[in-house]
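From the pipeline queue, job 12 of 40. The input is one protein chain; the requested action is below.

Action: predict structure.
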Amino acid sequence: MSLTHTICTWRERLSRLPYSLIALLGRFSIAAVFWRSGQTKVDNFSLDVISGEFSLGWPSLNDSAVFLFREEYRLPFISPELGALLAATAEHVFPLLLVLGLASRISALALLGMTLVIQVLVYPGAWPLHGVWATVLLLLAARGPGVVSLDHWLTGKVCD
């Protein structure tokens, strides 16, 4: 068997991977990144389905989140308190929507916006990591969540 034949065989096999499986993996993976970050910003509410740990109280913004926004992140045009609150909210709402596959494209674009803010204003040296996040989010925004999603169930093939 020649090298060319082997390469073509593997390319053919890989091309049969269903997009919906790739999208599902991408949705869960990128949602976990943002969810975990959001969890560090709140007290009285924790939910980790992988470890089975949970505490389902009314969430409140913790002091360390505000401290980070005041001392390390230092976003322009927004108070540290508001920045921490908006980030914690977004890091819980949009990942949940992505996991459900509901408003997936909008959620992906919102998290892409957060990624761009983090990259440009907070951690400009972390572009390799943020590039991976952006790639997954752009794929989901461009191609949608796949068939294993509420978006697909609600809209059918009209918007896929």
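Job complete. The first helix runs from residue 3 to 15.
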